[in-house]
Structures are given as C-alpha cells and as structure tokens.
Design brief:
single chain, mainly alpha, 3 helices, 89% helix
C-alpha cells in the first residue's frame, strides 16, 4: 500500500516538474506571470515533500513489521551500520 503512495507522489512530482517547465517557457515569451512561476514552484515543492512522506511511511511500516516480529533490535543495529 505504501509503495502505491510513493508511485503516486512520484507521478505528481513529474507532473509538477513539467508544469514548472511550461510556466518558465510561458514567462520567457511573455504570456506567463511571475505568480504562475511561484505557484508552479510551490506545487513542485509540495509534491517533493509528498515523495519524502511516502518514503517515511514505507520505512515506518517496515520497522513496525519488525517490531511486531520482535526482531527490531537486530534490524535497527543493521540499519545503523
């Protein structure tokens, strides 16, 4: 389930990156505004945060699974190396 969230977040970041690219092109030719650029940057940043949140959720699910299996100490020792 968490991996589908990551895929969705990555797709959102791709779309936001393309939106920013298009906003830059419109701004260069004079049909876009600086506000369009700011909005596109905000959406890109938000989607990049979404990727980090999805990765966090995957890590959290992994650690919870190992906690439930009662081998969390071994896993955390391995992670710290």
């Amino acid at each position: 389930m968490q991996q589908s969230g990551l895929v969705s977040a990555q797709k959102a970041a791709d779309r936001s990156g393309e939106s920013l690219r298009l906003a830059n092109e419109r701004f260069k030719v004079g049909t876009g505004t600086s506000l369009d650029l700011l909005d596109a940057n905000v959406f890109l940043t938000a989607s990049q945060i979404g990727i980090q949140q999805a990765l966090y959720q995957i890590d959290l699910a992994y650690l919870r699974m190992h906690r439930d299996q009662e081998d969390i100490a071994e896993v955390t020792t391995r992670i710290q190396k």
